Structures are given as C-alpha cells and as structure tokens.
UniProtKB/TrEMBL annotation:
Upper lineage: Bacteria, Pseudomonadati, Pseudomonadota, Alphaproteobacteria, Rhodobacterales
Its job: Catalyzes the attachment of glutamate to tRNA(Glu) in a two-step reaction: glutamate is first activated by ATP to form Glu-AMP and then transferred to the acceptor end of tRNA(Glu).
Organism: Sagittula marina
Residue ranges constituting the Glutamyl/glutaminyl-tRNA synthetase class Ib catalytic domain according to the UniProt record: 3-305
Known partners and oligomeric status: Monomer.
Span(s) of short sequence motif 'HIGH' region: 10-20
Protein name: Glutamate--tRNA ligase
Keyword Transport: no
Superkingdom per UniProt: Bacteria
Enzyme class: ligase
Aminoacyl-tRNA synthetase class I anticodon-binding domain: residues covered: 321-463
GO terms for biological process, alphabetical: glutamyl-tRNA aminoacylation
Length: 468
C-alpha cells in the first residue's frame, strides 16, 4: 500500500491565516492518522511579495499549533531549474509549444473576441506553427490543452467536477524570461515530493483542471484531490479583518490554548458524528475526507472559547504552565518569577476550571501574581470598611494555630463565625479583598491553601490595619 503523503504549501506574503492553519491541520491529521508524511513547502516564487519575515511567521504559527512536519522545509523558488526542465521536456514531446505573441497581440485578440461575442480565452496562432517559421524573438512556453472533450476532477469533497476543455486556455509554463510560473511549479513539486493527497481550499478547484493537463502530458500519476470550502465569518461572508483576528499568532496572543484551537479548527468544516470535544489522538483516528462538508464553515468565537475552556480544564498542569509562559512571551506580558511559577503550579487545580483563555486563568490567579502589600481594586476596596477590617483583625489570631488543611481551616472559620454571630458569607468579600485585591476570585480556602500560612496571615493582618 502506498504511503500517504500530504503537504501544506503557503505563500510567504503575510502571517499564517486561520484558513491556512485549518488547511495545514487537515493535511497533518490525514497524514498522521495513517502513518504517512506531512511535508511543508514555502511557495516563494513571487519574489516581489515573499519575505523572510512572513516565512518566519508561518513557521512560528505552525509551531504554536503543534503541527510538526517531516523533512526539511522546501523552497519552491530554489527548485526553479527543475521546473524549467519539465517545461522543456513537455516542449520536446510536443505537449507544449513556444508562443511568440506579444501582449499587444493578445489584448487585440481579446478585444475582437469581446466585440464578436466569442470566448476571450486566447487562441495562440503559434500552437501548431511550423518550427521553421519561428522568429528570433522573446517567447513564452504554453501547455497544449486539448481543445475537445472534458476534464473530470474526482474530488473527495466536491464530488465529480466536469470542466469542458474549450473553457481552458493554453496555460503559460515559462515566462519570456525563462522563469517558471506557479501553476507549473506546484505540479512538479507535488510530483517530485511524492504527494499522494492534495488537500487545499476550494478556491484552487479550477486550478486543478489546468494542473491535471501537466500530469497527463508527463504521464505522471494524479494525486487524490480534496478541495475544502473556505471559512466565513459569523455573518456568512468571507472571513476578513472586520471579523477580528486573522493570523494564528493573534489567537496565541489572545490566550487560546493550542489544543483547543486544533480541536475547534478540526470541527470547522469537518465532523465526526455529534462529537465536539476530542483529543489529538481521537482526531487523528477519526479524521477522514468524507467528513468534510461542501458548504463554507462559519467562525464562531463562542464555540472556540467553549472548547478552549474544556481543554484548559483537562490539561496537565505542567504543560499548561509552560504554554501560559509562551503566551505571556508572545503577548508582551510579564515574565513569571520562580515564586509566581511555583504558586501557579500549586494553584492550577483551582484556576483552570471554567477559564476559557489564559487571560481569564491569570486573572483568577491574580492573588498569586500580586505582591504584598496587596492593592485592592475599586470594587474589592468597598468590602474593606472599618467594620470588615475589625472583623479581619479578630480573625487572624484564630487562624494562627490552625492546621493548614481545608478541613481545619473550614472548622476554624465556622467556630469564629459562631463566636461573632455572623455567617461566612459576610466574611468572604473582605477576605477576598485582603488576599487577592479582587472581588471575584477562587474560593477563600483555595487561596489560603495556595498562598500558605505565612503569606495568608500577613495579607489578612495588613488588610486589617488599613487606615480609615
């Protein structure tokens, strides 16, 4: 059985678009789930628009998403000689020809065609010309596309797509300066890299019909095609800047975990029954091309956040802490001290529940990240009135001799409340303000356990001493 080989082939003209990230993910899942190879090719033939910075951004985006590739990254530009070699091979076997028509002649042909109501697809007078009549002038190399019949694309997503050959032009393979065009380069690279499955956006569907002509002329095996619908925004229109973040790096900076992003992108246009939340292992096992829908998927931030929250909740604490530090570095946030790192590690059990992003988790962990003396925000400060501070002053001695376990702390608090003739609910708000400087926090008991005896008592004592 032939080994599955997929590829992701972005153009380095900008960041890793979220649509490109999903295409990469689909290719990665299909290959990884079948013990195949996932290759990466940078299609940098457009030298005017391709930049090293964009290439770096794409590589960083894939790295954040955890989409590892096999072998070295292939530069399409570096393979230009090989692309030209194939074009000359097509010339030699009569499957391509030299076209000496100038741009002015081509435009004159199209204007006349428009005036007569004919197809404006250029019909080169050099297609069947005698080589002996060829002038000593610049020329392009064109592929001889069959004039009659049909080209059929048996697409794994779109189904059977039939295009009449008289709707296809004689595609340029080499420009007049001898450089290969993108359409030729893609086919040669896919063939030479052994790509068995071309999984890409359905905006390339018409390209497939033209590219198949090169495969046929070279007697090369066709890959399996799967053209996936594009991603639309919540309003049903093509995803654009008005819908929010577009680059994978922006989603990292917003604090979404990579596992949640992979899960969401996998579900964006593909389904496995009613399953919404799943692991990488399940995705690799389940992913297949017949689960991809034909209609554009709609990006939904609420669904993304919901899935990310589920992944944060089940993540291993050490891995989560490492990804949080990577998020802070990417977003320009603080660098954690060792004490903060240790504190977050101890407190992760009470921080990751119901947090849908890293900023939410870190806000819950503010009591760990803040320094003593704790500064209460405006809402929390309202809970530290004179009466509340007085109660905190009385509470502290009762906690000095308590064993620092949840059971003992709860028992000590219950005894204190009974003595004071009050309920714990009355104490919770000022304690939150004292321990975290926030009105919304994890439970008071969780905060005291994570902070430890000395730090908890110090914060409670300091809050009790705040002047009126």
């Amino acid at each position: 059985m032939t080994q599955v080989v997929t590829r992701f082939a972005p153009s380095p003209t900008g960041f890793l678009h979220i649509g490109g990230a999903r295409t990469a993910l689909f290719n990665w899942l299909y290959a990884r789930g079948r013990g195949g190879k996932f290759l990466l090719r940078i299609e940098d033939t457009d030298r005017a628009r391709s930049t090293p910075e964009a290439t770096e951004a794409i590589l960083k985006g894939l790295d954040w998403l955890g989409l590892d590739h096999d072998g070295e990254v292939v530069s399409q530009f570096d393979r230009a000689d090989r692309h030209a070699e194939v074009a000359h091979a097509l010339l030699a076997k009569g499957a391509a020809y030299k076209c000496f028509s100038t741009q002015e002649e081509i435009e004159a042909f199209r204007e006349a065609a428009r005036a007569d109501g004919r197809s404006t697809l250029f019909q080169s007078p050099w297609r069947d010309a005698d080589p002996a009549t060829q002038p000593d002038a610049p020329y392009v190399v064109r592929l001889k596309t069959p004039k009659d019949g049909e080209t059929t694309i048996n697409d794994e997503v779109q189904g059977k797509v039939v295009i009449r050959n008289d709707q296809l032009d004689d595609m340029v393979l080499l420009r007049s300066d001898g450089t290969p065009v993108y359409m030729l380069a893609v086919v040669v690279d896919d063939h030479d890299m052994g790509v068995t499955h071309v999984i890409r956006g359905d905006d390339h569907l018409n390209n497939a019909a033209r590219q198949m002509g090169i495969y046929t002329a070279m007697a090369w095996d066709l890959p399996t095609y799967a053209h996936i619908p594009l991603i639309h925004g919540p309003d049903g229109k093509k995803l654009s800047k008005r819908h929010g973040a577009l680059g994978a790096d922006e989603y990292q900076k917003m604090g979404y975990p990579a596992a949640g992003m992979r899960n969401y992108l996998a579900r964006l246009g593909w389904s496995h029954g009613d399953d919404e939340f799943f692991t990488d292992a399940q995705a690799k096992e389940w992913f297949d091309l017949n689960g991809i829908g034909k209609s554009p998927a709609r990006f939904d931030f609420k669904k993304l956040e919901n899935l990310c929250g589920q992944h944060i909740a089940v993540a291993e604490d050490a891995a989560l802490l490492q990804e949080i530090e990577e998020f802070l570095a990417a977003s320009g946030g603080i660098a954690l001290t060792q004490a903060q790192r240790d504190g977050l590690g101890r407190g992760m059990y009470c921080l990751k529940e119901r947090a849908k992003s890293f900023p939410e988790l870190l806000e819950k962990g503010h009591f760990i990240l803040t320094e003593t003396p704790v500064e209460a925000d405006e809402k929390a400060a309202k809970a530290l009135d004179a009466v509340s501070r007085g109660i905190l002053g009385k509470l502290t001695p009762h906690l000095h001799n308590a064993s620092w376990t949840r059971e003992e702390l709860e028992a000590a608090m219950t005894r204190f409340c009974d003595e004071q003739g009050t309920k714990f609910g009355k104490l919770a708000a000022p304690m939150r303000a004292a321990l975290a400087g926030r009105a919304v926090t994890p439970s008071v008991y969780d905060m005291m356990l994570v902070l430890g005896r000395d730090e908890s008592l110090a914060r409670l004592s300091q809050a009790a001493e705040i002047p009126a």
